[in-house]
Specification:
Belongs to the CCDC47 family. It is found in: Rough endoplasmic reticulum membrane. Keywords: Membrane, Signal, Transmembrane, Transmembrane helix. It is a single-pass type I membrane protein. Among the domains are: 111-224, no CATH class; 235-343, no CATH class. It is elongated. By secondary structure, the protein is of the alpha+beta class. Strands 1, 2, 3, 4, 5, 6, 7, 8, 9 and 10 form a 10-stranded antiparallel beta sheet that branches. It is 39% helix and 17% strand.
Length: 343
């Protein structure tokens, strides 16, 4: 019996010692957490009927239906089930239907009448441009050829002022410079008492169709303007102008020397001139001296061709605007200006 008790005590002591040694070997055992998933208990569903809650839900549903009864329209969704198309399977490709668009273009020329009209207008415009430019060139060349010998007899140099290089066409034309399609100029120099003479042919703008149409409404003529710059010591000091009535009114308004030194217009019959002319003179003695019988006979012979004759020792060009304040006095020259109308 004692032996059995001793064996039991020995077994207990051995187990306690082993547990103590295990706790000492694992120093971090107290920090280890063993999380065990706790499964929450599943609540038991009661199969017993709840009549009170069901009654409340039915009452709320009835109240909601009565509240929105006026929004419901029985005919609103009528036939919706019949119009709804059956849904296609998910894997099928969409079926595209391409509408047939009718072609409105016709095979005849009536569909392009606007384009044809525009092309015809352009053809007329460019055709008139070429024809008008060619005609102006022929007129300028014909005038120069008919007066070339007269100019060569009176001037040592005809057709070149030495300031610009002439083109081959201008050299062939004898120095007649083409400033534009309707303006040609010619410079002459080398004569006693004359510094130089500039001849300007102001032809109609025949190359411009709009200008040509305006010319039909308001007729005008080609014009020849000759400006002779005199040497200062070989011309007396006076201002005088002989011009047609319409041109005289325009020159008296625009030219500075005429508006300053010739305030009055004199009657043409006083000097034996035709009735369509007007005389602007600074002094009456100058007009009597210049308009002698020889000059009057030439004026009467070429009455339709003469537009104006302007002689001045105070010529400075067009007058300045009234609101313009000049910084210095304009430079004046002694010039003779002649304007002739073409036939």
């Amino acid at each position: 019996m004692k032996a059995v008790v001793l064996l039991l005590l020995l077994g207990l002591l051995t187990g306690a010692t082993a547990a103590h040694v295990t706790e000492e070997d694992n120093e971090f055992a107290e920090f280890e957490e063993f999380d065990e998933e706790e499964v929450p208990p599943t609540p038991q569903r009661s199969d017993a009927p709840q009549p009170a809650a069901a009654d409340d839900e039915e009452e709320a549903q009835v109240e909601e239906e009565e509240e929105f009864d006026h929004f419901q329209d029985e005919e609103e969704f009528e036939g919706l089930d019949q119009e709804r198309q059956p849904s296609r399977p998910q894997g099928d490709k969409p079926h595209l239907t391409i509408a047939k668009v009718p072609l409105h273009l016709r095979s005849n020329w009536e569909s392009f009448y606007l384009e044809l009209l525009m092309l015809a207008g352009l053809a007329v415009y460019f055709g008139n441009f070429l024809a008008g430019r060619s005609k102006n060139h022929r007129l300028a060349t014909a005038w120069f050829q008919s007066h070339r010998q007269l100019l060569l007899d009176n001037f040592a140099l005809v057709g070149d002022d030495g300031r610009k290089e002439l083109s081959p066409d201008e050299v062939e034309a004898g120095g007649l410079v083409k400033d534009s399609e309707s303006v040609y100029t010619l410079w002459c120099s080398g004569r006693l008492c004359v510094e130089g003479m500039l001849v300007e042919l102001r032809l109609l703008k025949r190359q411009d169709l709009l200008s040509l149409m305006a010319h039909m409404v308001r007729p005008s003529a080609d014009q020849l303007v000759i400006r002779v710059t005199m040497s200062p010591q070989f011309m007396d000091g006076f201002v005088m102008c002989l011009a047609t009535k319409k041109t005289a009114a325009r020159l008296h308004k625009t030219m500075a020397d005429l508006s300053t030194y010739c305030p009055e217009k004199k009657r043409p019959d006083k000097y034996g001139l035709p009735g369509n002319f007007t005389v602007l003179s600074e002094m009456g003695e100058v007009a009597n001296a210049m308009l002698d019988q020889k000059v009057l006979s030439v004026i009467k012979r070429y009455e339709e061709s003469i537009d104006y004759i302007h002689m001045s020792d105070q010529y400075s060009g067009p007058r300045l605007q009234e609101d313009t304040q000049p910084t210095k006095l304009p430079e004046v020259k002694k010039v003779l200006l002649f304007g002739f109308n073409g036939q």
